[in-house]
Amino acid sequence: MSQLLYEGKAKKMYTTDDPYVLRVVYKNDATAFNGQKKASFEGKGRLNNAICTKIFTMLQGKGIPTHYIDTISETEQLVKAVHIVPIEVVVRNVVAGSLSKRLGVDEGETLERTIVEFYYKSDELGDPMINSDHALAMELATEEELAEIRRFALSVNDALRAFFDAAGIVLVDFKIEFGKLKETGALVLADEISPDSCRLWDKETHEKLDKDVFRRNIADLPETYEKLLKRLEDVK
Ligand code: TMP
After folding, report:
1. In the structure, which protein residues have their CB atom closer than 6 angstroms to any atom of ligand 1?
2. End-to-end Cα, the chain, rounded Å
3. Which CA distances in Å does 34 have to 44, 123, 127, 214, 217?
4. Which of 2, 92, 96, 100 is the most exposed place for a label (fewest CB within 10 A)?
5. Shortest-distance atom of ligand 1 to CA 127
6. What is the rounded distance in angstroms from the CA atom of residue 162 to the CA atom of residue 166?
């Protein structure tokens, strides 16, 4: 018996016969600006599933624990069940998006130091930015967990940067989420890493290879994601 456990903007999660294993289905829907802009694109679920599979497999190969178990169809993965830590972690190498607006710095400026930001995961509130004190006072995570999350986020950044660099792509920024395994309580990388949750620019031309093409009406989303997948397939 498989029951729908949760439906998000881009994925659905189903139970399996194993209480510690869930099935994720990648949907064709795309949203932006906290769901205010919506569309559906044939092939998006397949593309994000393939891209995320490639990334999680690469990260696990580098010793970074993730919830990922296996890819079982064009649009489905099996993952370990977790309790999601309600913090969205954004890592930035180059100024773009909300950072550019907030600090009045041009998009494209390389940061002297990588920035790690925390946002409180709440659709109702539009995911407000928080600092560690807010996270602790709201009991979203413990001090040890926050330190581990920060370390983890920086090692994911190192691994992803090298991976995309090999494909001629700059990792501008990305958002990740963490979870505590239902089975053991261990902290692992959860959710997804895909062009929905990263900014990826061609190294030479700065062509955007991520969801900004949809957010800003720049190019066709499936064509863009297909181009990205092709380039990642060439990376060993
Ligand atoms: P931002 O510049 O809009 O704050 O976005 C930073 C990065 O986080 C960018 O790669 C897109 C990603 N992101 C998400 O994955 N989900 C979100 O809800 C938001 C706001 C950003």
Report:
1. 90, 96-99, 127, 173-175, 197-199
2. 38
3. 19, 7, 8, 14, 16
4. 2
5. 18
6. 6
Answering whether pTM is above 0.90, one says: yes
What the block records as the tokens of 118 is 């925390």
Q: Please give the Cα distance from 64 to 138 (Å, whole number).
A: 27
- Nearest C-alpha neighbor of 134 from the set 144, 119, 149, 115: 119
Tell me, in angstroms, the distance from the centre of ligand 1 to residue 204's CA. 23
Instruction: Encode pLDDT of 59-97 as tens digits.
Output: 999 999 999 999 999 999 999 999 999 999 999 999 999
Tokens 């559906």, located at residue: 40
Q: Which helix (H) or strand (E) holds 202?
A: strand 198-202
Length of the chain: 236
